[in-house]
C-alpha cells in the first residue's frame, strides 16, 4: 500500500475529516511533512476497505490484529526493509487517538482492541528448532520426561503453571488441558494434540500410578517427585536439563534451554506455520501481544494474514 491510494467509502472520508479536526484542535505536532496522524489513519481506513470492511462499527480485534500483522510485515515506502519499531508504535498510538475520536462522536459504541508493541524480543538462540524438539522427545528415558515436554512445548505452559497442574486438569475425554491459575490468576483451556494426549495418558495411568503405590494415593499433583509429592519448578527444570544432556548434542547443551524456552519455541513454530497472532495469544494465555512472540513474523517475507 502507498499513500497515493485514496479512500473510496464516503463514510470513511467523513471520519478522516473529523479526525483531522480532532488533531488540529489538540494541536498535535505534525512533523516536517504535516498530517502525520491523518496519514496514519488514512492508511488504516484504506486497509480496512481493501479487507472488505466498509463500516467502522464492524471493526473488532480480528481486524486490528490483522492490521498489526500487516504493519509488522509492511515494507518501508522509502528505503529497504520493514517498518521500524518506533513507526509501528506511532501507528498504534494514532489508532488509539482515532478510536477516542470515534467514541466522542458516537461513531462506535465500544472500544476496539489495539495491540501493543514493546521491547523484549526473545533471543533466537534460545528457540529450539522442530528437529531439536524431536531430539528431546527421542532421548527421553521415562514417561514423566515425555509428559513434561508435552505440557511445556506441546501446550506452551509456563513453569509455574506446570508446577500447579493437578491430574484432574488433564481432561482425557475432551482433549483439553485446564490451566486454573495462570499469570494474573487467569483461567484458560489449552487444546492437546493426539501425541500430547497419548504421552500424558501413559504417564498418568502407568508411571505416576506406580510411583504412588504405598504412598499418598490422594496426591492431586500431576507431576510428583521421588517421594510422591508435588514436584517443584526447580525439579522440573532440572529434569529438562537431564533430558538435554541425554541427547549428547553439544550445540543443544550449550543453548542453556529452560522450560520457558520451550514455550517460546512453540510460539515461534505456530507463527512459522501461519497461526494468527490472536490464536497464539490465547494459546499462551497472554493478555497482550508481546514482541517476544512476534519477532518471527517480523523477519518473515510478507504473507497473507491468517487469523482465527
UniProtKB/TrEMBL annotation:
Q: Keywords assigned by UniProt?
A: DNA recombination, DNA-binding
Under PROSITE patterns, the record lists: TYR_RECOMBINASE
Which InterPro entries does this chain map to? DNA_brk_join_enz, Integrase-like_cat_sf, Integrase_catalytic, Tyrosine_recombinase_XerCD
Ranges for domain Tyr recombinase: 122-308
Segments traversing the membrane: none
Q: Which Pfam families match?
A: Phage_integrase
The record's family statement is: Belongs to the 'phage' integrase family.
Q: What is this protein called?
A: Tyr recombinase domain-containing protein
Amino acid at each position: 500500500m502507498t499513500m497515493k491510494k485514496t479512500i473510496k467509502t464516503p463514510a470513511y472520508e467523513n471520519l478522516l475529516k473529523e479526525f483531522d479536526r480532532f488533531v488540529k484542535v489538540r494541536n498535535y505536532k505534525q512533523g516536517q511533512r504535516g498530517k502525520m496522524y491523518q496519514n496514519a489513519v488514512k492508511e488504516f481506513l484504506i486497509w480496512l476497505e481493501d479487507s472488505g470492511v466498509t463500516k467502522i462499527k464492524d471493526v473488532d480485534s480480528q481486524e486490528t490484529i490483522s492490521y498489526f500483522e500487516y504493519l509488522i510485515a509492511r515494507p518501508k515506502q522509502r528505503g529497504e526493509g520493514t517498518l521500524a519499531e518506533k513507526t509501528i508504535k506511532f501507528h498504534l498510538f494514532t489508532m488509539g487517538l482515532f478510536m477516542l475520536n470515534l467514541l466522542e462522536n458516537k461513531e462506535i459504541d465500544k472500544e476496539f482492541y489495539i495491540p501493543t508493541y514493546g521491547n523484549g524480543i526473545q533471543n533466537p538462540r534460545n528457540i529450539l528448532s522442530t528437529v531439536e524438539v524431536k531430539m528431546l522427545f527421542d532421548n527421553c528415558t521415562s514417561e514423566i520426561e515425555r509428559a513434561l515436554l508435552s505440557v511445556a512445548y506441546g501446550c506452551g505452559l509456563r513453569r509455574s503453571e506446570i508446577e500447579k497442574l493437578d491430574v484432574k486438569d488433564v481432561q482425557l475425554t475432551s482433549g483439553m488441558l485446564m490451566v486454573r491459575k495462570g499469570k494474573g490468576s487467569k483461567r484458560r483451556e489449552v487444546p492437546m494434540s493426539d501425541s500430547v494426549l497419548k504421552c500424558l495418558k501413559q504417564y498418568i495411568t502407568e508411571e505416576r500410578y506406580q510411583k504412588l503405590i504405598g504412598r499418598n494415593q490422594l496426591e492431586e499433583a500431576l507431576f510428583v517427585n521421588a517421594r510422591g509429592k508435588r514436584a517443584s519448578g526447580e525439579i522440573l527444570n532440572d529434569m529438562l536439563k537431564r533430558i538435554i544432556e541425554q541427547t549428547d548434542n553439544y550445540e543443544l547443551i550449550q543453548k542453556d534451554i529452560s522450560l520457558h524456552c520451550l514455550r517460546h519455541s512453540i510460539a515461534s513454530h505456530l507463527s512459522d506455520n501461519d497461526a494468527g497472532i490472536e490464536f497464539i495469544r490465547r494459546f499462551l494465555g497472554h493478555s497482550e501481544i508481546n514482541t517476544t512472540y512476534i519477532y518471527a513474523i517480523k523477519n518473515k517475507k510478507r504473507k497473507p494474514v491468517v487469523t482465527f
